[in-house]
């Protein structure tokens, strides 16, 4: 009897897992409580895979030997609860696929910076001629790529939801870029549970593996004091007090990994801002561990083009710079964005709040923001937080309206910044959709 694999969620990770499962001899069934996109239905049909949408039929799911749950489905959803009661293992795509590849994996997590660090690492390793895949939270499904079996190494962007479903998986190189309160709605509003989820990335690592982390980050350093990690630890820090791992001296990134000195002047990095210096430090450590030549690392860090929807310069119109930072879905990400503003800023903010504390932005808003444009169904919390701090506060319910008002308020030399600090699901499909609508609205001005 073939083992039965049930896949919950018919998106990119679900379809990829189904394809890999079938290839490995499982009897596969895909079940999506919502709608499955037409393009994915075609793939399922081509691969002769059974599926359903708009429901979870218990009789077809509870008889599974193993269940792969897409990261977007919460642990407390009824079908997942039923599976747990029956003792059926519920795992993530990463956990399922990892057992079928011998490739080296680099796992990158963190509340912010993980996408940039992942893309930057992928860029460096590709420039170095490595046969490398990009997966996890971005790109093509990891399971799908493992099914096609083309890569010697993978750079994986891992969210806490993906790490929740890990049992045996371990990356050879793990990175934790930083930790700040995010997605607390999925962790019973308990920050400690969220921190623990991030550290699952290192739980199966051995002495032969590596953990790269931000030594300036309070939550990370506290956790490391209280828990033991088997992996070799490589800290990175801007403070310059610590000469371990990767550090800064005289505006230069320095490290001594694999007994070889690496140097990179900060002003040669293509990405601006302290948070990007940290992303570059983490990337350089990975590249050194992967034996990439120093020259290649330096070139790649200086010609990297950045990530869409992350402090992306859209256009300058009448000497006003429009910046798309739609990927800022929490206050910590928006903190970085506001912190890097050098001109008076018209700030477009709002959406679905995941338990934000706006106090941490107060000083920056005071200092940099001349007007706030709220873009959400319910903006009350933002109005309460900043109503007395800025002179102009406007509520809008569409992107084109928000951008038109921003144009009216902004004067020569100002910046219009979309950095929502919230999820996008009240008015948009996802943060990409939100960012694209912003760019389209700016181009139509």
From TrEMBL:
InterPro entries: Mur-like_cat_sf (IPR036565), Mur_ligase_C (IPR004101), Mur_ligase_C_dom_sf (IPR036615), Mur_ligase_cen (IPR013221), MurD (IPR005762). One of its GO terms (cellular component) is cytoplasm. It catalyses: UDP-N-acetyl-alpha-D-muramoyl-L-alanine + D-glutamate + ATP = UDP-N-acetyl-alpha-D-muramoyl-L-alanyl-D-glutamate + ADP + phosphate + H(+). Residues 309-422 form the Mur ligase C-terminal domain. Keywords: ATP-binding, Cell cycle, Cell division, Cell shape, Cell wall biogenesis/degradation, Cytoplasm, Ligase, Nucleotide-binding, Peptidoglycan synthesis. It is found in: Cytoplasm. SUPFAM superfamilies: MurCD N-terminal domain, MurD-like peptide ligases, catalytic domain, MurD-like peptide ligases, peptide-binding domain. Belongs to the MurCDEF family. This is UDP-N-acetylmuramoylalanine--D-glutamate ligase. It comes from Flavobacterium arcticum. The gene is murD.
